[in-house]
């Protein structure tokens, strides 16, 4: 079992402003641990976490990838979260470039088709639409109608950013209608798999994984 990244530099006061790693975060880590061999074979040249929060997930993925030459990128809309991510990668003796931005604003067109590994534990809680788009701790959970407003804003970027061999991992809850999300990305040419599921209180969490559908002729 891989150890959870060292987060001892983050104090309770930080978690008043930055999402504290929780059941969803840890399920995400479990999914990456399950996929360790896959990730080692994938050998991503560039990875991107959207909404990196404390930086826990990127530090964990960084440990899996080891001293590879992967350029790790992170974004977060919350400036305090962006700073926490910088501190966490440093605390874990890793490197990452952290951009304070909404979703992937500013990364396209430069990174078009270049991301080999992309992952997002989004704000997925069902809330009024007015709650979406804050740059504070509220951005950690406020997902709007069906908890899908931020997720749906992001989905069109998946086809633009992922490289041909790339994989995209997404945390969702049952109320986000995972089948519908899979259908949307299916239309953009992606296969999907539900690779982990866990009940956490009243939430039923899932980790979805998307890879580009190979054309039938590619299989020969
Ligand atoms: C559920 S938290 C996940 C944090 C961390 N990745 C984890 O798994 O513990 C969601 C994160 O997404 C960020 N976020 C929300 N909306 C965003 C947006 N439009 N662009 C970038 N980050 C966003 C929040 O600030 C928060 O850090």
TrEMBL record:
The UniProt keywords, alphabetically, are: Methyltransferase, Nucleus, S-adenosyl-L-methionine, Transferase
Give the source's domain of life in one word.
Eukaryota
Q: Name one Pfam family in it.
A: MTS
| Intracellular or extracellular location(s) | Nucleus
Q: What are the BP-aspect GO terms?
A: methylation
- Specify the Methyltransferase small domain's residue ranges: 41-126
Per the record, the major location class is nucleus
- What protein family is recorded? Belongs to the eukaryotic/archaeal PrmC-related family.
Q: Which PANTHER family match?
A: METHYLTRANSFERASE N6AMT1
Q: Which NCBIfam families match?
A: hemK_rel_arch
Q: Could you tell me what this protein is called?
A: HemK methyltransferase member 2
| Gene from which this protein is expressed | N6AMT1
